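fyi for ur records
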Amino acid sequence: MLITLPLASVFPLLRSREWLLVVMVVYGIGHGANMGTFTLMLIDVMGLKSLAPLLGTSCFCNGIGLFLIGPLIGESRIYWVCILKVLLLLLLLLLLLLLLLLLL
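which gave:
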């Protein structure tokens, strides 16, 4: 997330195809590493039995967040960095809340 968030905020500012390709490759590697590490962490913390519900809930929340954030970024290009950070923070807090509820 430390790699992908700043790179995602650079996408609309790029005009050159070469730089867009470089940023997309680095973003893809960072996002893939993040998802792989996240899945391993879920197995380690919660066990293999609860992997499917947790991963499903996580992907569902991620999908809802991406569905809501897409039009906001397109609509307000000036303020899109602030909106992106706030919505990602809210999504992270929701995931942490769901994880705590599953632990109890």
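The chain is about 80% helix and 0% strand. thats all i got for now
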